């Protein structure tokens, strides 16, 4: 049976989205892109039993990224499993914003908090190799994934296990930039059931939605150097509250709320004078 035969048979069933079907075929047959899949359309299907098993998991609702063990972030492939959050497009925007801000100061020290798969930290380091990049996560399982990704992508990152900026406070370390996508979902009712079932709650939920942002902002006062910046991903409904918290903690700083590509208030930046 050719790859095309499998594709057409599965397409007729309409049990999974077309893009998921194509990506699953790429994964099982060892092709890096969908374009390559089409080039080998008439090749024999490699491992039909494996494909059937993975397809069953996708059809049952398991996220494709966990099924194939990887997710794409800024055009790079990162290993993921259920110990880390699947990277979102908004977080790609966060990393891109940070990179643009760091271009003018490429030799500074930066930290990615709650690194998960390591996608932000690694993307910063690969975009600007002269940066010194640190990353923390409270989860040892997440750190193992992040270290695996850093090794696979040849990114020199220093990892610490701990809660947000506590490892830096413990080691008396200062940084010039802090980038983070903290948990900011307050209620289970607003979460897709598949996300709730499969993705790590530690990386999704926060008391009142802003608990972790407040903690990070407070800790940053003792870690962020003059002229440094703190950049956080936020929920669109938290902008006013977090801007007030930021102003109270950094009364002389420039506080900015930025919108994502959907036009939603999504990012808080604090620039220390």
Characterize the biggest β-sheet.
Answer: 7 strands, mixed
CATH fold description of the largest domain: Rossmann fold
Tally of domains: 2
The number of distinct helices, counting runs of at least 4 residues, comes to: 12
> Secondary-structure element order, as H and E?
HHHHHEEHEHEHEHEHHEHEE
In percent, how helical is the residue content?
40-55%
Instruction: Report strand %.
Output: 15-25%
CATH class of the largest domain: Alpha Beta
CATH architectural name of the largest domain: 3-Layer(aba) Sandwich
Q: Outline the low-pLDDT stretches.
A: none
Spatially, the strands of the biggest sheet line up as 5-4-3-6-7-9-8
Assign the structural class, choosing from mainly alpha, mainly beta, alpha/beta, alpha+beta, or little secondary structure.
alpha/beta
Q: For this structure, what is the CATH homologous superfamily of the largest domain?
A: Vaccinia Virus protein VP39
State Rg: 20 Å
- The shape, in one word, is elongated
Average of pLDDT? 95
* Number of extended strands: 9
* Span of the ends, CA to CA: 65 Å
């Amino acid at each position: 049976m050719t790859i095309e035969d499998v594709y057409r048979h599965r397409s007729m069933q309409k049990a999974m989205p077309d893009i998921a079907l194509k990506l699953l075929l790429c994964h099982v047959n060892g092709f890096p892109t969908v374009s390559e899949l089409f080039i080998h359309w008439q090749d024999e299907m490699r491992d039909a039993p494996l494909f059937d098993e993975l397809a069953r998991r996708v059809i049952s609702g398991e996220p494709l990224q966990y099924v194939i063990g990887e997710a794409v972030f800024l055009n790079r492939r990162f290993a993921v499993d259920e110990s880390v959050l699947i990277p979102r497009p908004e977080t790609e925007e966060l990393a891109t914003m940070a990179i643009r801000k760091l271009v003018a100061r490429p030799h500074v020290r930066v930290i990615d908090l709650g690194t998960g798969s390591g996608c932000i930290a690694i993307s910063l380091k690969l975009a600007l190799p002269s940066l010194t990049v640190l990353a923390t996560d409270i989860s040892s399982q997440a750190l193992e994934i992040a270290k695996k990704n850093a090794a696979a992508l040849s990114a020199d990152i220093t990892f610490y296990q701990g809660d947000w900026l506590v490892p830096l406070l413990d080691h008396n370390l200062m940084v010039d930039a802090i980038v983070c996508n903290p948990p900011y979902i307050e209620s289970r009712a607003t979460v897709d059931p598949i996300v709730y079932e499969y993705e790590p709650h530690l990386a999704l939920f926060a008391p009142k939605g802003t608990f972790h942002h407040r903690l990070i902002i407070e800790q940053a006062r003792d870690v962020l150097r003059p002229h440094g910046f703190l950049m956080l991903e936020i929920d669109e409904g938290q902008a006013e509250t977090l801007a007030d918290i930021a102003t109270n903690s950094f009364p002389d700083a420039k506080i900015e709320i930025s919108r994502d590509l959907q036009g939603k208030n999504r990012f808080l930046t604090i620039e220390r004078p």
